[in-house]
Amino acid sequence: MAGTNATGANAPIRGAGPIDLFFARYHQFAYNPHAESWSEYFRMCAFFRWNKRSKKERKVRTLFQDAIVAEFGAHYGADENKLDTLQRLCEKLDIFPVPQSITSCKKAVRSVHVNIMDFVDCERTGNPVHKFRSVGQLQRYTFSHEKFFPKKQAKGSSLLRYLLRRLVR
């Protein structure tokens, strides 16, 4: 996690996760490690006056999304063929009883609709994971809150891709 040093700037501290390390690069920004990372990202963009979709913002956004994938991997692993990894993911998604086979776990995870940004943040904020009843509900929420996760980054993690849903406006 990152904290604030005596000057008010970000200072990485022991146990920092990938998202904390991402924000630690921007020393002038007063990062709150307990807030939702996406909210902190938008707040940081406003602080630095980066125009949405400018070349600078797009570059930083890609780094931020890479940090989210790394954070997911740090919490849940990346190997889609390890039963204990899949079972831990099922538990976090409140899938009970927890399936006892790799195939059953994958099928169960695919049946759950969560916003990936919120899911990763639940470890940081302590907020419960919100499960949507349908892809349509997830889609409306994702678009209204601008919490998109590009499939390019999600597909880079074999485990994370099981949470990826195709959302169309």
Automatic annotation (TrEMBL):
Q: Which domain of life is it from?
A: Eukaryota
**Which protein is depicted?**
Uncharacterized protein
Species source reads Claviceps pusilla
Q: Which lineage do the record's taxonomy fields give for this organism?
A: Eukaryota, Fungi, Dikarya, Ascomycota, Pezizomycotina
